[in-house]
Amino acid sequence: MNLHRNGHGPWAAELRAAVLAARLGGEAAMPFYGRAVATAKEGGSPVTDADHASNRAVVQALRAAFPADAVLSEESADTPERLRAARVWIVDPLDGTREFLARNGEFAVMVGLAMDGRAVLGAVFLPALETLYYAAEGAGAWAERGNGPLRLQARTGRTPPRLVGSRSHPDPLLAAIQAGLGAGEVQPAGSVGLKCARVVEGHSDLYVHPVPYLREWDTCAPEVVVREAGGTVTDCLGAPLRYNKPDPVQPHGIVAAAPGLSEAALAVITPLYTDGRGERG
Q1: Rounded-to-integer distance, Cα 98 and Cα 198, Å
Q2: Interacting residues of 47 by C-beta distance below 8 A, sequence separation 6+
Q3: Number of neighbours of residue 44 by Cβ within 10 angstroms
Q4: Is residue 85 classed exposed, middle or buried when 0-12, 13-18 and 19+ CB atoms within 10 A define those classes?
Q5: CB proximity list for 22: less than 8 A, separation 6 or greater
Q6: Which long-range contacts (CB under 8 A, 24 or more apart) does 200-203 make?
Q7: pLDDT of the residue at 42
Q8: Which tens digits make up the pLDDT trace of 175-219?
Q9: What mean pLDDT do residues 4-16 have?
């Protein structure tokens, strides 16, 4: 682990724990790469031994570092006790299981921390690509690829925007949003963390996922990376994402935008989203 030597403000200890946990999760998952066998969870999404191995490593590391904090993870049983906690670690131990099975490298271990319902730090580790993104509120966003930390600053968004979208979960509403924005072809990518990284690093300008089945563990860690790099993250109604809800769903999807793009993009996205989903308000 090679965090920026000047520290990360009041969240330094927590960010070190998030980065360590994400790396340990990746180390636990990679022995299954290329030989994992998937089973279907309730709802039909795949899960593998790699998901479970990563989950054990991540949760164990977080509980060892901060035993008083609550943990909400995709692959752990949820308990109502977390709702009384001000601090909740929110974990996706293998975001992009389909990409893991396809061996295309576009999967991530994502570890975020929410404080009073707001995402405040996160680590996104792509073990097959040997790439780490991390950020803490007020301390900036950083990337590591084996050559030390690099400060991330997202570029001003272009018009029309270049969109990055789901490789595994296409949605008909996205085509209408794409046309409304005047965007060209949507660039496909796997993990939510990777798609947000594409926006932060200037490969794309906008990530829109107008679906009702995103969960808090899909968005917590990458949201902080986007915000701390200068971008904006909301749902498709333009509202902030909230965390540690009784039902950990993000019911109105996600919009992650490069600097200067959010307001104009949402002016197009929100009406199309409300018409397409029958949502009002």
Answers
A1: 19
A2: 38, 39, 40, 41, 75, 97
A3: 6
A4: middle
A5: 58, 109, 110, 111, 123, 124, 125, 132
A6: 200/133, 200/141, 200/152, 200/154, 200/225, 200/226, 200/229, 200/231, 201/143, 201/152, 201/154, 202/154, 202/155, 202/258, 203/162, 203/164
A7: 73
A8: 899 999 999 888 989 999 999 999 999 999 999 999 888 999 999
A9: 77
Residue 3 pLDDT: 56
Please give the single-letter amino acid code of residue 16.
R
Per-residue pLDDT tens over the stretch 69-93: 999 999 999 999 999 999 999 999 9
Single-letter amino acid, residue 128: A
pLDDT band at 169, cuts 50/70/90? low
Q: Which two tokens stand for residue 170?
A: 């296409």
- State residue 47 phi and psi, 5-degree precision: -140, 145
> Exposed, middle or buried, 120 (CB in 10 Å: 0-12/13-18/19+)?
buried
Q: Which residues contact 162 (CB under 8 A, 6 or more apart)?
A: 183, 184, 187, 203, 204, 205, 206
| Tokens of residue 19, six digits | 């980065």
Nearest to 64 by CA among 20, 119, 96: 20
N-terminal to C-terminal alpha carbon distance within the chain: 44
* C-alpha dist (Å) from residue 281 to 170, 199, 237, 240, 274: 25, 27, 8, 14, 8
Tell me the two tokens of residue 30: 């990679």
pLDDT value, residue 7: 57
Nearest to 226 by CA among 178, 250, 193: 193
Secondary structure, 3-state, 27-93: HHHHHHCCCCCCEECCCCCEECHHHHHHHHHHHHHHHHHCCCCEEEECCCCCCHHHHHCCEEEEEEE
Mean pLDDT of 99-111: 96
Sign of torsion, CA 198 201 205 211? positive
